[in-house]
Amino acid sequence: MNFLEERIIKDGVVKEGNVLKVDSFLNHQMDIKLLDEMGAEFKRRFAKKPINKILTIESSGIGIACVAAQHFDVPVVFAKKSQSINLDGDMYVAEVESFTHKCRNHVIVAQRFLTPEDRVLIIDDFLANGCALQGLIQIVQSSGAIVEGIGIAIEKGFQSGGRIIRNLGFQLESLAIVDGMDAATGHIQFRDQSKMQENVFVSEDENICRSSTLD
Ligand code: 5GP
After folding, report:
1. Which residue, by CA, sits nearest to atom 5 of ligand 1?
2. Each residue of 95-135: pLDDT tens digit?
3. Mean pLDDT value of segment 142-147
4. How many domains does the chain have?
5. Rounded-to-integer distance, Cα 87 and Cα 109, Å
6. Per-residue model confidence (pLDDT) at position 194
7. With left for phi above 0 and alpha for psi between -120 and 50, is residue 183 left, alpha or beta?
């Protein structure tokens, strides 16, 4: 077990509805030493990539992305989920389905913060069905920038997002992959990442994200 898997076993809580709560150390209260270890691991896994920007999505990706950014020495841009008076100028917009809130959000990035020169690492806390990630990928691609890789803290491997994103050809690195969890017993099963299969078939129906760019 790696350091993040150990922490999930110690402090994660399995809830009904396939939700893993990690709010005591990752996405409400944040253990910065743990985030720093995660940042170092992302840097190790993407060491060969010429990353000059990290993109994440508010709110729970921001802390992880900021600590990771110190290891890459690059700025962080976070996609906003609502229009605000502080957002001005031209924007890239994608529509994504939210797993936790069961609603649809617009994710928005000001065009001046993503340019064709950017080589982007996308970071987020969770990967479930992949809707948030597909929205962020669309935004990067609309800008002409390149997605160099995707770093996720916790992938729920029993949902389709990981397979969809890997099949699209992206380097997706998840620090922990949960292959099964049981709310009744609290048991969490992690994938042995040394035995990862590449390009597992995903049917069209499994991609439940209906994200589309709106700009
Ligand atoms: P997706 O778009 O991949 O379906 O879901 C990813 C987003 O939903 C993440 O940004 C994360 O905030 C949230 N999410 C998905 N599954 C979980 C979960 O089991 N626990 C928590 N805390 N958040 C989740």
Report:
1. 128
2. 988 766 667 889 999 999 999 999 999 999 999 999 999 99
3. 98
4. 1
5. 9
6. 83
7. alpha
Taking the centre of ligand 1 as the mean of its atom positions, its distance from the CA of residue 107, in whole angstroms, is: 15
Ligand 1: residues within 6 Å at CB? 19-22, 27, 60, 99-100, 124-132, 156, 161
> pLDDT, tens digit, for every residue of 16-28?
999 999 999 999 9
* Report field, pTM of the whole predicted structure over 0.85: yes
Q: Which residue has the tokens 């001005």?
A: 88
- What's the CA-to-centroid distance between 132 and ligand 1, angstroms? 8
Q: Which mutation among 13, 80, 105, 125 tests ligand 1's pocket best, with the greatest number of atoms within 8 A of CB?
A: 125
- Structure confidence at residue 212 (pLDDT): 46
CA of 16 to the centre of ligand 1 (A): 14
Say how far apart CA 210 and CA 204 lie, in whole Å: 11
CATH of the domain at 143: 3.40.50.2020
CA of 18 to the centre of ligand 1 (A): 10
Residue 101: is it exposed, middle or buried by C-beta count within 10 angstroms (0-12/13-18/19+)? exposed
DSSP 8-state assignment for residue 80: B
Residues 164-179 have a mean pLDDT of 97
The DSSP bridge partners found for residue 79 are 57
Can you give the residue range of the structural domain that contains 192? 3-214
What separation in Å is there between the alpha carbon of 19 and the centre of ligand 1? 8
Which element (helix H / strand E) includes 151?
Answer: strand 146-156
